[in-house]
Design a protein that fits this description.
Chain B: This is L-lactate dehydrogenase complex protein LldF. The structure holds 2 protein chains of 2 kinds. By secondary structure, chain A is α/β, with parallel strands linked by helices. Chain A contains 5 helices and 12 strands. Chain B has 23 helices and 12 strands. Classes of the chains: A alpha/beta, B alpha/beta. The structure holds iron/sulfur cluster.
Chain lengths: 198, 486
């Protein structure tokens, strides 16, 4: 018998005498939203994760972008990123080793979650493939205030599993050494979010 | 680097050794105390926490009751999206599947995302036997692997090591595994993490194959989810050409939208954060990567057949139960002799392996005070104390011919307790003995109360695994006769 048939057979005999009725799943949590302003809550929770935050308007964005990139010389810019970036390097499918030689990356995001201070990339236009927001040491992400949803349930409902996703809450971090939080073990050591009022 | 739990002594013996290690106890008390406080704070922020727990338990129960259907659905959605699905009855079969994929691609090293399932099946050792090196890339796992050590906690496997020990491991062992640690490496956490970053980046950039587990597998869409902090997971999941994910068959959730419960429950319960730094989701083969999924039984169907124990398969490996457990806090994880330590390990190991098979596993249902803290902390409401009691009965049944230690000790106690005259007599005897023993001065328990060492048989059956408080110099009954009626 194949492993597949045998495992399915074991599952069926394990459940032979089980009550197979469905337990109702309470879903009230889906309608609960945090009180207050979700944009302010997002800003507060993002900074709490030691990400950097600059608030701007569509007019002041180019300036904010230049200053968030600081001294970066080579900046990967994915297809569909709508603004001009100093030092822009287009995504030509660079290998991991080539990405490792770049200073920074700029991306858009699919949405953001207020209660957790999370940005979510679904790697659509302007967001790049998964490796580009991972290998360079500085990640600058441009987000509009109207992309912020209140909580995790609203985010899951708005996203589609068809696209790979990367949920990012602050810069990479470890707490493995005596539970001291250290930023940037393997991912970008700096996450800078530009929040554009809409 | 081939440390395994095979041949570990039964819990009482291992625990006694662990208890005498003061450094270990200090590291553990600090760590579990810190995580407990963080978890309590972020759980307190969520108004509907209890409803989320009920939802998490209900979703998982529904999956388990129809596991055959969900497995077939998951297989189909994965295959439709370009992944290759494999089925593994046991550890050896799962390891062989991973090794054969490595051979097909002619790779002699793989990078790994921390995963309980691959530790459970001893994948690193099995690959090593075939000349394939598996590099752990989670910082704590790296510390454990380089130190030729064993993990002691589900979430922070090197929790038993302090910074000075970590520095020493990096300085003496990194060079043999790749890029050496810098000469002037200090024991500052940021510097230690920096050394790991450089050491591992070299491996990420050249790796052609990665092995991961999955925190969740969505049947409807074939989506796998990996929750992590450091970015090593993202490195493994995105950079190599071939990705093999070893997934326990209990990891299924029915639909994409069910993740809204678990992505709230898991980070707050495990690291005590509102959200972990990185969560990756992917469905089948993405961005040109070749994707394999190994669906692993290895005892899960045995656990499924146990009507009381089945609920343990809801476990999302958050480790909250470890951090609140007074037994775990004092003994540490190694004493459980398994990659699954703490309260969940005490039930999961016997459920996966069966009772009456080996002494080590049979000792685990007794590694608990049944205080119930684990149930209160568990985000999917696994009634661990209930399962412990159920498994104790099964262990006793499996050993009917040779009565269990505790049972013998209890029988002699019940003979004394059953009769007031005998109790009176015994108390006076104990009081006298207590005075003598107190003067001799045995060990002192936490809180200052004196403890006896090991008692003579049959008391030894009880005291071998427990500190027995020294009897009071005078019994309550005699004190009451003397003072109480004034
Ligand atoms: S039993 Fe519950 S608390 Fe313990 S690791 Fe599993 S899910 Fe977490």
């Amino acid at each position: 018998m194949s492993a597949r048939e045998e495992i399915l057979g074991r599952v069926r005999s394990a459940l032979a005498s089980a009550d197979r009725s469905e337990t109702p799943v309470p879903r009230g949590y889906r309608s609960s939203v945090p009180s207050g302003d979700v944009v302010e809550l997002f800003a507060e929770r993002l900074v709490d994760y030691r990400a950097e935050l600059t608030r701007c308007t569509p007019d002041t964005l180019p300036e904010a972008l230049a200053s968030a990139l600081g001294p970066s010389e080579a900046v990967l810019v994915p297809d569909g990123f709508p603004w001009a970036v100093p030092g822009a390097v287009p995504d030509t499918g660079q290998s991991a080793a080539e990405l490792d030689r770049l200073d920074a990356v700029v991306t858009l995001a699919a949405l953001a979650i207020a209660t957790t201070g999370t940005i979510v990339l679904d790697h659509g236009p302007g967001q790049g493939r998964r490796a580009v927001s991972l290998v360079p040491d500085r990640h600058v992400c441009v987000l509009r205030t109207d992309q912020i949803v209140p909580g995790v349930p609203q985010a899951v409902a708005a996203l589609s599993p068809g696209h790979p996703q990367t949920w990012i809450s602050g810069p990479s971090a470890t707490s493995d050494i005596e539970l001291n939080r250290v930023e940037g073990v393997h991912g970008p050591r700096t996450l800078h979010v530009l929040l554009v009022s809409s | 680097m081939s440390a395994t739990f095979v041949g570990m002594p039964a819990f009482p013996k291992a625990a006694r050794e662990a208890l005498s290690d003061t450094q270990l106890r200090r590291n553990l008390a600090h760590a579990t105390g810190t995580i407990r406080a963080k978890r309590a704070a972020v759980v307190g922020e969520v108004d509907d926490w209890e409803e989320l727990r009920l939802a998490g338990a209900a979703i998982k129960d529904n999956v388990l009751r129809h596991l055959d259907e969900h497995l077939l659905r998951l297989e189909k959605s994965l295959t439709d999206r370009g992944a290759t699905v494999h089925w593994a009855r046991d550890a050896a079969e799962a390891c062989e599947i991973v090794a054969s994929i490595a051979r097909q691609h002619a790779v002699d090293e793989v990078v790994k995302v921390k995963s309980m399932a691959t530790q459970e099946i001893g994948l690193n050792e099995a690959l090593a036997a075939q000349g394939i090196t598996a590099w752990e890339t989670d910082l704590a796992e790296l510390i454990v692997q380089l130190g030729d050590d064993l993990p002691s906690h589900i979430l922070v496997p090197a929790i038993h090591r302090n910074r000075a020990e970590i520095r020493e491991i990096f300085r003496s062992r990194m060079a043999a595994a790749g890029r050496p640690a810098p000469d002037d490496l200090s024991d500052r956490p940021a510097e230690l993490a920096g050394a790991a970053r450089l050491h591992l980046r070299e491996k990420f950039l050249r790796a052609r194959m990665a092995v991961s587990g999955a925190n969740f597998a969505v049947a409807e869409s074939g989506t796998l989810v990996v929750v992590e902090s450091e970015g090593n997971g993202r490195m493994c999941l995105t950079l190599p050409e071939v990705l093999v994910s070893v997934v326990g068959i209990e990891k299924i959730v029915p639909t994409w939208s069910d993740l809204d419960v678990f992505l709230q429950l898991l980070p707050r319960s495990s690291t005590g954060e509102r959200m972990n730094p990185y969560t990756s989701t992917w469905s089948g083969s993405t961005e040109g990567q070749e994707a394999h999924v190994v669906l692993l039984d290895n005892g899960r169907t045995r656990a499924l057949a146990d009507e009381v124990g089945r609920q343990a398969l809801r476990c999302i490996r958050c480790s909250a139960c470890l951090n609140v457990c007074p037994v775990y806090e004092r003994t540490g994880g190694h004493a459980y002799g398994s990659v699954y330590p703490g309260p969940i390990g005490a039930i999961l190991n016997p459920l996966l392996r069966g009772t009456g098979v080996d002494e080590q596993t049979d000792s685990l249902p007794y590694a608990s005070s049944l205080c119930g803290a684990c149930f209160d902390a568990c985000p999917v409401r696994i009634d661990i104390p209930e399962v412990l009691v159920h498994l104790r009965a099964k262990v006793v049944d499996a050993h009917r011919s040779s009565p269990k230690a505790e049972a013998v000790a209890m029988k002699s106690a019940s003979w004394v307790l059953a009769d007031a005259r005998r109790l009176n007599w015994a108390e006076r005897g104990m009081g006298l003995a207590g005075r003598v023993l107190n003067r001799v001065g045995r060990k002192v328990m936490p809180g200052g109360r004196r403890a006896l060492g090991r008692l003579p048989w049959p008391g030894s059956l009880w005291s071998n695994a427990r500190d027995v408080p020294a009897p009071p110099v005078e019994s309550f009954r005699s004190w009451w006769r003397r003072e109480g009626r004034r």
